[in-house]
Amino acid sequence: PERGSIVLEAEGVTKQFGGLVANKDMSLSVRAGEVLALIGPNGAGKSTMFNLLSGVLEPTAGRVRFLGEDVVGKGARRIASLGLSRTFQHVRLLPTMSVLDNVAIGAHLRERRGLLGGLFGGALRLDRAQERRLLAEAARQLERVGLGEHLHDAAGSLPLGKQRILEIARALCADPCLMLLDEPAAGLRYFEKQELAATLKKLRAEGLAILLVEHDMDFVMGLADRVVVMEFGERIAEGLPEQIQRDPRVLEAYLGG
Ligand code: ADP
Ligand code: MG
């Protein structure tokens, strides 16, 4: 997609769990080449929104369009194959395997989840050409995020900040145009957050659309182009980081006014 064009658009999205309204009439859009941050207190409905956008959950009402296509009811795998990748809040990798293999296998499993059993049975059932292609793509994405020097290190030996970046490389193998990141900076040291932010800025400059949920306000304010604030399942504010920081409703939501 062209830089600045809308890749993802949610309109009037509502999600009820029984009597609980986790998302109410939520709207947001993400453009190619921008970072949109979704923030709000615990229980505000951010993770539910992620699950609705990525097809893990179906909304009770409302529309979600990805690259112009209505994706409600399409399912997470189909939406992923259209170019939406996500990482999870907790690092998921095979610690004794190399960084390169983690990315290659992760990318492969992303396409064909049924092979997990085969993997632990010792057989990935890839032919030589497939394997070479996967490894080359994994190496390319690891170089892209600055992990080119660590291809043959054990993934578990990397510091947490680099493990997070490894997961981003794995998500990049599907060649997405939109990346959803769930609390990428959680638990990282100050310099690791800076390294992560620099990586995400590079990807943004290459035209990737990034939507992130994040609690670390300094991280959000230093990285996001726009911020959407949720409280009790609803959007209470949207704007530039500097506007959001001064918004009285946002301050109240955070300070428990
Ligand atoms: P956040 O990520 O902003 O902390 P969540 O989206 O996880 O918020 O949760 C929003 C609300 O929806 C919470 O009250 C939570 O308990 C509820 N909720 C989330 N998932 C489910 C579910 N699968 N079933 C029932 N309630 C849920
Ligand atoms: Mg959450």
TrEMBL record:
It is found in: Cell membrane. It comes from the Bacteria. Residues 8-257 form the ABC transporter domain. Signal peptide: none annotated. This is Branched-chain amino acid ABC transporter ATP-binding protein/permease. It comes from Pigmentiphaga aceris.
